[in-house]
Amino acid sequence: MATNILILDDEQNYLLILEALLSDEGYTITALSDPETGLAYLDESEVDLVITDMKMPKLTGQDVLEHVKKNFSHIPVIIMTAFGSIESAVEAMKIGAFDYITKPFANEELLLSVTKAAQFAKAQQENRQLREQIKDRYSPNNIIGRSKPMMQVFEMIHKAAPGSSTVLVTGESGTGKELVAQAIHQASPRCDKPFVSVNCMALNPGVLESELFGHEKGSFTGAVARRRGRFETADEGTLFLDEIGELSNDMQVKLLRVLQEKTIERVGGVDPVKVDIRIVAATNKNLKKAVEDGEFREDLYYRLNVVSIELPPLRERREDIPFLVDHFLATYSADNNKVFEGFSPSAMDYMTAYEWPGNVRQLQNVIERCVVLTSANVIATEDLPAEIKDEEAQFKSAVDLLPAKLNLADTLDKIEATLVRRALVHSNFIKVDAADMLGISKSLLQYKLKKYKITGK
């Protein structure tokens, strides 16, 4: 796609020369002698680069530059100026001009400057497109869910995003904690700044310290140069600390100091480095219990837990499963150049009734597997993995999810609630059929639905 260049100059000869020269190089040129008309054109047209003379009637080149920087900050501006006005061109560079060219100019000099500016404009456009793609991908609108628990999550994201308070996202593995962190970042004023993610469990404490805070040259064997850490990389943006509950005591102290003082010290360094970041932390641990057990610092816990967002496990929002299935089926069908009508009713019943110990991540993997291995245009029960359609495996999955220290009565209640819920799913939520499937009366089923707070669909 050709680069669209707007040229503003009140000298007609220069307009003709520039238009001819740059058109021959494949650029699309709009040449105007009136800068006010040029600004109106900018507001209505796609422009990738502006070349403007410094001295013009009505508006100066600096006026044009200031308008572009205020309203179209991604568009580079090249200033043309007479030799005697270089000082004003240098001043224009200070406020954001991409380059300046002195008149009369050599064609090679002008073409080199335009080539660099066009490359910069293309990179800016690609970056904007990439940011929009990321913003769309991680916006709350693209976190799939219509259940009441997810509506509460969306509300918390909406409330938390505009501020800078630390957010603690909790939930089982596979529930989508990083997706929530990305959504918070993309809906925040920091969305154009970096989002940096660190898994605190993936690195040992020594490596993690250098990864987070960076290090000075010679601070340890192999440190051949100064290196910026993730805190500095995320400056003015968002730092996502996943598996925060796995931090060692020493790292907890260092992190607490950063949160309190807004500064870091590189490994081997003595000078504090100021950082402006927002922290979003996540864990699948019960941090409050970890505090009670002496495994996590209480002061750090309260520093992190300013805004708390708890993600429900998939088994507690089963009404979202069909929407997630449709979403991932469409995604993986496109990736594999296949077309599916969907899941058969029986297969969908199994998908909805399953306990999903791996949560959304497991559901996603199962659907990808089905798409890859299924030849028909409908995914049937026989296409599902054994653990999904095996009744004993489902029962074992439900039991394995129960806390180990439950007493027998509580345990039996949990199992009974699971069986009632599964019967409802298999009977398409027709209570008479569900009662028959369980071998109980409809009135007894009604009692159990009320007892376990099961509302149906």
Automatic annotation (TrEMBL):
Keywords recorded for this protein, A-Z: Activator, ATP-binding, Cytoplasm, DNA-binding, Nucleotide-binding, Phosphoprotein, Transcription, Transcription regulation, Two-component regulatory system
Taxonomic superkingdom: Bacteria
Pfam families reported in the protein's UniProt record: AAA_lid_14, HTH_8, Response_reg, Sigma54_activat
GO CC annotation, single: cytoplasm
Entry's Gene Ontology BP terms: phosphorelay signal transduction system; regulation of DNA-templated transcription
Alphabetized InterPro entries for the sequence: AAA+_ATPase, AAA_lid_NorR, CheY-like_superfamily, Homeodomain-like_sf, HTH_Fis, P-loop_NTPase, Sig_transdc_resp-reg_receiver, Sigma_54_int
Major localization listed first in the record, in broad terms: cytoplasm
UniProt domain Response regulatory: residue ranges: 4-118
Domain Sigma-54 factor interaction: 143-372
GO molecular function terms noted in the UniProt entry: ATP binding; sequence-specific DNA binding
4-aspartylphosphate: residues carrying this PTM: 53
CDD domains hit by this protein: AAA (cd00009)
Compartments, record wording: Cytoplasm
PROSITE patterns: RESPONSE_REGULATORY, SIGMA54_INTERACT_1, SIGMA54_INTERACT_2, SIGMA54_INTERACT_3, SIGMA54_INTERACT_4
Name under which the protein is recorded: Acetoacetate metabolism regulatory protein AtoC
Species, as recorded: Maridesulfovibrio hydrothermalis AM13 = DSM 14728
UniProt lineage: Bacteria, Pseudomonadati, Thermodesulfobacteriota, Desulfovibrionia, Desulfovibrionales
